Every structure is written in C-alpha cells, then in structure tokens.
C-alpha cells in the first residue's frame, strides 16, 4: 500500500524559523546597501535621471521630501531602471521588451493604489521605486516559505528542508532579490507552482507556473515539471492499468497544461510584434519583423546584449567566468552526485524507481484526484506487480556488494532525501540551465540565473549535514554566500558591475 505524506510536528516551528530568516536577510541587505552607498560614490550617477515619457507625458509637482525621494531613486540601478521606466511609461523602445511585464505591472498597480498617497511627498518615480522594493522583498519572503514547504515534500525531512531554506535566504544572489529585479517574483511563482503541483492542486500549479513565464523568460521551462508528471501518469495508465484511452487523455491534458504555461510568454512576444512591426513603413520595419519566425526576445538578447552560443568565450571575459565558477561548480557537483548515486533513475527517467518510490509518486502526482476511484486498486496492483522484481534486484545488488560502493540498495523513499526519484525533474531542469548559462548567456549572470534552482540548496544542505563529508565544505558554502552578499551589496548598490 502506498504511504501517505505525513506532517511533522516540527514543520510549523520550522516555518516560523524560515520566515524569520527571510525577514532578517532582507533587513541585512537593506542595512548593507545603505552603508555602502554612504561610504562610496556610485560609479554611475545617472540613476535619478528621468526623461519625460514618449507617450502620454505627465508632470507632477516637486516632492515635499526631496532628500528622501532622492535617496529612494538613487537605488534604482542597472535593470531596475528598465523595470521602473516600463512601469511609468510603458514599452517605449525595442530593447525594453527584454524585460517581461509581470514586475512592471505589479509596480504600477501598487503605485496607483497602496502608495498613491505618497506621491505628493516623494514624487511619482520614488513611489514607483518604493512599490518595486516592497513587491520584490515581500515576494522573496513568501518564496522562502513556499520553498520550505516544497522541500519538506521532496526531502521528507523538515530539518533538511529548514537547512536548505535558510541557505536560500542567504543565497549568493541575495542582492537581486532585495532590488527591483524579477528574481523574487519568479522564485515565488516557481516554488509555489511546484509545491501546488506536488500537493495535487494542478490547476493552481498551472496558473502559478504560467505567471512565472511572465516574470522571467526561463519560466517556460517550468512546463517540464508537468511534462514529467504527464509522462509517468500516462505510462502507468497504459502499461499497468491497461487503459489506452485514459493514457491518451492524460497526454492530451498534460500537453494542454504545458501549452498554457507557454502562452503568457508567447502572448507578450505577439504584443511586441504588434507594437514594433505592424502599421509601420518598410523603412521603419525592424529586421526581425521580416523573419519567417519573428521572435523579438531572441533578437533583443543577441542585438543589444550580444547573447549567443559561445559568443562570450573571449579571453577578456575570463574574470566573469571566475565570478560565476562557484555557482556553476556547485550545480555541476549536484548533478554529478545525483547521477552517480542513482544512475538507473537518470537512465530510465524515473521509470526504474523502487516500488516505494513509485507508490509515493502515485500519490504525489495526484492519481487519486485526477484518475478516478480505482487508484487504490492501482496502487496495490503496482506494488504486487513490482515488489517481487524489486526484491530480486535488491538481493542481486547486495550480493554484488553495491552497498560497499555507496550505492542506494534500499527501497525506502523515506530515507533517500536528495537521491530520491522526485529530485530528477529538478536535476534535468538545472542541467539545462547550467548549459545555457555557460555556453549561451553572459556567464556571470549564472549566479542569479541559477539561484532559484531548488536542487542546489538541497544538495548544499546534504553536503553540510552529511556525516560522510568534511565540515570544511559547509564552511566553504557559507563563506561563498557571505562573501557574495557583501561583495554584491557593495558593487551593485553603487552601480558597479556584479553578475
């Protein structure tokens, strides 16, 4: 019989600890940012500049608290300038379409409602910036809570989940989660979407993951989680339950859910095409508009930022490769460890999981809610059909001495933690992102690009708590996080390059 997901008595206490860690980390970043800006002169002092909007220009009287307004606006640096400008004036220029609309929409909404009374005091642009800070920091706090809940389901160990969640609260890209960047919203929607998916709330999960593709372009990759779920559900329905029409329905339903996650990002590309390509003369038409498959986002990344396969492999970029090397090394090690520990899971895409894992996956992937009332019989049938073969394989492994080589030879999914079959889709996800960040993107962006990958923190937690590893690795991980928090808050807040 499949085992149900139990709730540990320590979970509410740990949730409170995660909440405190998330709030403390945001306050720490705020203090560091104020400290560094008071001690150093910004490299670029153009942050307060605010030209009149091209369309529908509006003017506001000078703010009453000019010094406070300037202090808030001076924190609008790097990509924050784009997000605030889009919230204020819309998508004025072609390169603005590299920044997806969810964060600007949230900033605009808060500036016109909650913080609208502050406009006479600090001015509209400062209100936009304040709205952005509140949205991003509050989103981060909720992201940390959802990450803990997700980790409990995956790791089945509240203490390991707490360790991983605290690491996320103090991750090396922390400065971006406190700034007006889309990382916080993306993390919230991704973690929350995965949590609802594994909790059986598929419709909520689809909505959250679809919204993640409006926060960051890599949100479309989250469709892979539903793809993994659909693949296993269809296989079990067809090969074990012998219900071909049910398997077909599962495939159709899963495909529609994946498409729904892609729709917001595609719709935004269509919006850009409408604004930049239609109703323009041939002289004004941009080159990408004439392409057989006009894709605005790829063109902007390539044309304005020089993003492309191996285009960043230049000797002068060596410092940036070194800057990204810690996060890339951690990600690669997490993948290698999982592949070496559970090679049969990776080779079979999870289909060779143990009986206990397969039974647990039947619950976690919501068979009871989505496939009808015969799922109890299905779980029993699954267990009876595979239990004998599983025991035979287990005896063979023991007789070969695989347990002396560090292989997993037991079938209890309760004890697998990071090496369970549930981790596989997250490993595949981070593997694709590592390859993309190393070979295609500006490699230094990998620090924040990979910072919302759950498997990194699960692996780091394993390394820090496992009795088989030296404590020095835990110290190195914390040293890396602390160093990048200090360095990032110093450089980023003063408009110096950092990832």
Automatic annotation (TrEMBL):
EC number assigned by the record: 2.4.1.-
GO MF annotation, one: GPI mannosyltransferase activity
GO biological process: GPI anchor biosynthetic process
UniProt KW keywords: Endoplasmic reticulum, Glycosyltransferase, GPI-anchor biosynthesis, Membrane, Transferase, Transmembrane, Transmembrane helix
Keyword Glycosyltransferase in record: yes
Mode of membrane association: Multi-pass membrane protein
Role this protein plays: Mannosyltransferase involved in glycosylphosphatidylinositol-anchor biosynthesis.
Name of the protein in its database record: GPI mannosyltransferase 2
Organism: Hibiscus syriacus (Rose of Sharon)
